[in-house]
Specification:
heterodimer, A: about 375 residues, mainly beta, SH3 type barrels, OB fold (Dihydrolipoamide Acetyltransferase, E2P), Glucose Oxidase, domain 1, 3 domains, 11-stranded mixed sheet, about 40% strand, disordered N terminus, B: about 600 residues, alpha/beta, Nucleotidyltransferase, domain 5, Rossmann fold, 5-stranded mixed sheet, about 25% strand, globular
Chain lengths: ~375, ~600
């Protein structure tokens, strides 16, 4: 390697690297685009005030197809199939209805094929000898998800709903969209949410825990009908036991556990950040819309808790993250200081060697207790408050 | 199509970028005194997602960093792109780029028979740089309704359909086509995107395919991928996939229409660029190469054996986004077996889950680094194992059988055998950024277990994709940079194949070093040793394996080889093949520590604290 090359390597790495943090906002304008997967009908108009349950758009996706090997079942050549079909393309059929009929030797040999499902004949192939029956269309509804005002109608696709709300992003979640009243299950952000803290009064609630939710608490929540749990951490083993499968790649939201779970900090016992905890506590009794859907790659999607309220939104809270400067509040997101929160104290320009012997760009963080630690810049995230 | 207008001899600066899923990496190359060299690198977060949704912003940020480092102006002052050609201290003569942002090119592949046309179609799609989401075949073990459900749940960017030899099977091929049509696959890129489908099957079925598929799909028909059973012809399909990628997929990704106007060379999927670089190594050295791009989301493995190039991509094996999938597929116990100190499995799995949800973090502690290195070994092992299912001889071909074949149960599926591999090459963040070069050498060795004498290379600062795409228009410049600034010669691994009891003799190595001095080493099972031999130096060696070990010429047979040096040195590996690793926990840890210490893998003081 050339000298020059090594020099430029030194200077080049990670100059612009920083991790935009998770949003924890007391008051902001939240826009939600509610869109159909394919074109359909939109039921709302701009300016309408909607509740979270209101259906804003509806469509039908084509039903499941079923392939029936009619020629083979009749024992005829594929090219002769049209001769024996009793139904034509586009015709409706009922389950059990005769689709095709074959008779030979003056009716001594008779074969019939009946429809395995109700639907419409979509195709009859004289090459493969098979027909396709298309099941009844499947209706797809999109609701408003958050209460608010329709600020834009997307013709044939849906609408954009806007509301003023507290907005708290989590780092990982499971389960889809849900709603409920915010209830505090613990007193402090380092408390463990165990099953004995959950009562029948929590039915339908968005329950706030502290540093960890136990497997027992998850199971009891499902029994009682808790809507959602928002908590700092979860053990990996408990998550597997609860969902019944290992999470390979983080694309979640489709789980049908009967409970949405939102993790705000990470895996293991993780004290919920004080500001997140305090914010949620201040809205105890409010209705919240929640979604556990998480996607880390190809379109980052983080789980969210949205608490609509009437306080006025802060000004300029929607700017693009401009990076770190001394005084920026950050959370350390990797060992050995995982979960620690502090303020950026110093941002050295030169790369420094860390314990692993890697030369990386670092920053000094003054932790809550006054100690100053040096960590790679890649290992902190900005707390967007 | 390349639109390069400047004569090569007048060129002075070349800019190449890779728009990755997280980071956009810009590299500038410069010709000085007639020689092309790497000049500087700039990196910035990729801006494919909201709120930016324009990849050119990330490209500009990365290029701006290059400008700051070199003082050479590259970006047009009005923001309209890259200044081409160069004039004094402004502009470059070629701008080219690769891309994997937004999940790369995701394809679904279908064929008639799983081990024949479907396998050939899979190889063609992979060769074009795609991530293959699923391979549908008539005999894939799923019922038609299960296949339909699967197709309906996928969101591909493109479909490749093969099946039948020319003039051969027709009805069964149409069955597959009808199944795809009935499933109404929805493209990932949403409403308004017409899903491209490439038909590369029995050509006598083209009229029927056209009738069936022309509505609802963007249909392209190319020469049959298996015109006869004995021939695999993937090139036309690969080319069609590439063209459709440019025409449909790229033009739907945010900012790509603009980026396409900036570049002088077609945008290439990152793995395709990486593959070109691996082929460049094989072409230049005229040797068999096994290479890997160990990324955050995927592991791409490339083999060039007897000039046959095959690429595999394991879409969900990687070191950040996919790190927990490595844990899921390998099993946590296979990861922890490489850790020489006590760390509870739950602790390891929680750390990996935390890495997955915050994929851009890096290990600060030695403990964390060793955990990541353990995962890397397993990702590489699984990636190679996947590759071997793709790098196979053509199935369905009649072989002339000899007497000796009659004793074989079946022909071995893969031809990627470690004894025939001459060079191992690695790229990707974890390998390139390993604090000590011996770390990447041992990780590759542990994972892939090279046999005989194997040279080991790695990418210096991730520029293989850049040089791969450049090599399509300017091979000499690409190779010059590749040779001098990109390819780090780690050294050579000397490892006899075979097994024995711990402590049994494995090999005797007699080396004549560059200065003429002799060196004799005898190694027993369970031992490793590193012999310093600098980059660019060579030593003659006679390696005599013990009678149950093989260096390539048969058990116990001595071989005479020229060993090349590198930044790490010559790794004499007498751990057996497969590598001997005790079941018993303490014995395993002790042996790992012995290896790490004898190779000086990690800083001793920190390692001691962990034990």
């Amino acid at each position: 390697m050339s000298e020059k090359f090594q020099d430029s390597e030194e200077k080049s790495v990670e100059a612009h690297a920083y991790t935009p943090g998770l949003k924890v906002k007391r008051s902001m304008t939240v826009d939600k685009t509610r869109r159909l997967p394919i074109f359909g009908e939109v039921f709302v108009n701009e300016g309408d005030v909607v509740d979270h349950e209101l259906i804003v758009a509806r469509t039908e996706i084509s039903g499941d197809p079923e392939i029936v090997k009619v020629a083979m079942l009749l024992g005829v050549e594929p090219e002769d199939l049209p001769l024996y079909m009793l139904k034509k393309i586009g015709e409706q059929v009922e389950e059990g209805e005769i689709l095709a009929n074959y008779a030979a030797f003056f009716g001594l040999i008779k074969k019939q094929v009946v429809s395995p499902k109700s639907g419409t004949i979509e195709s009859i192939s004289d090459i493969t000898g098979q027909i396709i029956i298309r099941g009844d269309p499947i209706p797809v509804d999109v609701d408003a998800y958050i209460p608010g005002k329709v600020v834009e109608v997307l013709p044939k696709e849906g609408a954009v709903i806007e509301t003023n709300a507290a907005f708290i992003q989590g780092i990982f979640g499971i389960g889809g969209e849900s709603h409920g009243e915010i209830r505090m299950a613990v007193d402090r952000p380092d408390n463990v949410l165990s099953e004995d803290l959950i009562t029948t009064e929590d039915k339908g609630a968005v329950l706030i825990g502290g540093s960890l939710v136990t497997l027992g608490a998850l199971k009891k929540s499902v029994e009682i009908g808790v809507s959602c749990i928002v908590v700092g951490g979860i053990r990996h083993d408990d998550l597997i036991s609860f969902t019944g499968e290992e999470i390979g790649v983080a694309i979640t939201g489709q789980e049908e556990m009967g409970l949405t779970v939102i993790i705000t900090e990470g895996f293991g016992t993780m004290r919920m950040s004080q500001s997140t905890f305090d914010l949620l506590k201040s809205f105890e009794g409010y209705q919240a819309s929640v979604n556990g859907a998480t996607q880390i790659r190809a379109g980052v999607l983080r789980p969210e808790t949205i608490i609509p309220h009437q306080e006025i939104a802060e000004q300029g809270s929607e700017e693009l993250s401009s990076g770190m400067v001394p005084g920026t509040p950050v959370r350390i997101i990797r060992q050995p200081y995982f979960g620690a929160i502090g303020l950026v104290k110093f941002l050295p320009v030169e790369r420094q060697q860390v314990e692993s012997e890697s030369y990386v760009r670092v920053l000094d963080v003054e932790l809550d207790d006054g100690t100053v630690v040096t960590v790679p810049r890649a290992n902190v995230e900005i707390i967007e408050e | 199509m390349s639109q390069i207008k400047i004569p090569r001899e007048d060129m002075k600066y070349i800019l190449a970028t890779d728009v990755g899923s997280t980071t956009t990496k810009a590299r500038i190359f410069h010709r000085k005194d007639g020689e092309w060299r790497f000049l500087a690198a700039g990196e910035a977060p990729t801006t494919v997602e909201t709120p930016y949704e324009d990849v050119t912003m990330g490209v500009q940020n990365a290029v701006r960093e290059v400008e700051e480092l070199t003082g050479h102006k590259i970006l047009s002052p009005d923001g309209s792109g890259i200044v081409v050609p160069h004039n004094g201290d402004t502009g470059v003569d070629i701008y080219c780029t690769t891309s994997s942002a937004g999940g790369g090119l995701q394809m679904m592949v279908a064929g008639l028979i799983k081990s024949m046309t479907a396998e050939s179609a899979n190889r063609a799609a992979l060769g074009a740089g795609a991530i293959v989401m699923d391979v549908i075949a008539r005999d894939d073990g799923r019922m038609p309704y299960q296949k339909i459900q699967r197709i309906r749940s996928l969101r591909p960017d493109m479909i490749l359909l093969a099946g039948g030899t020319d003039g051969g099977a027709s009805a069964h091929v149409m069955e597959i086509a009808e199944l795809i049509k009935a499933s109404e696959p929805k493209p990932r890129l949403g409403i308004g995107y017409k899903l491209p489908i490439v038909y590369a099957g029995n050509k006598s079925l083209r009229p029927q395919i056209e009738k069936l598929m022309s509505e609802g799909f963007a249909l392209d028909m190319v020469d049959n991928i298996r015109p006869v059973l004995e021939v695999e012809n993937t090139e036309p399909a690969r080319r069609a996939v590439h063209e459709l990628f440019m025409e449909h997929v790229m033009s739907h990704a945010p900012g790509y229409t603009k980026l396409m106007k900036w570049t002088d060379v077609d945008i290439m999927p990152t793995p395709a660029g990486e593959g070109m670089a691996m082929q460049l190594i094989a072409d230049t050295f005229k040797e068999n190469v096994l290479g890997v791009g160990l990324g955050g989301a995927t592991t791409n493995v490339y083999s060039i054996v007897d000039s046959k190039f095959v690429r595999s991509v394991s879409a969900n094996l990687g070191m950040s986004y996919s790190v927990t999938n490595v844990m899921k597929e390998a099993g946590i116990e296979n990861i922890t077996r490489w850790i020489p100190f006590k760390l509870e499995e739950e602790e390891v799995s929680s750390r990996l889950m935390n890495k997955m949800i915050r994929p851009t973090t890096i290990p600060q502690t030695l403990e964390d680094l060793i955990v990541e290195h353990s995962v890397a070994r397993e990702a590489l092992r699984l990636g190679l194992s996947h590759h071997r299912t793709i790098a196979t001889r053509l199935k369905g071909v009649q072989f002339e059988r000899t007497i000796s074949d009659m004793f074989e149960q079946e022909r071995e599926a893969t031809y990627v055998k470690m004894m025939v591999i001459d060079i191992l090459a690695g790229t990707g963040g974890l390998l390139s950024h390993a604090p000590r070069r011996i770390q990447s050498m041992l990780i590759l060795t542990d994972a892939w277990q090279p046999e005989g004498v194997t040279k080991m290379f790695q990418d210096s600062v991730f520029m293989m994709p850049h040089l791969g795409v450049l090599s399509t228009v300017y091979r000499d410049a690409a190779w010059s940079i590749f040779d001098k600034d990109c390819l780090v010669r780690l050294g050579t691994c000397v490892a006899p194949a075979g097994t024995a009891e711990l402590g049994a003799p494995v090999m005797k190595v007699e080396m004549t070093m560059p200065g003429g001095e002799s060196l004799v080493e005898g190694l027993s099972l369970g031992e490793v040793k590193l012999i310093p031999l600098a980059e660019g130096q060579e030593a003659k060696a006679i390696i005599t394996p013990a009678k149950q070990f093989d260096m390539g010429d048969g058990p116990g047979k001595a071989v005479e080889k020229t060993i090349t040096g590198g930044v790490a040195g010559v790794l004499l590996d007498a751990r057996g093949r497969p590598i001997y690793l005790p079941e018993e926990d303490n014995a395993r840890k002790e042996l790992l520590i012995k290896w790490f210490r004898s190779l000086d893998m990690y800083p001793e003081d920190k390692l001691k604290e962990l034990l």
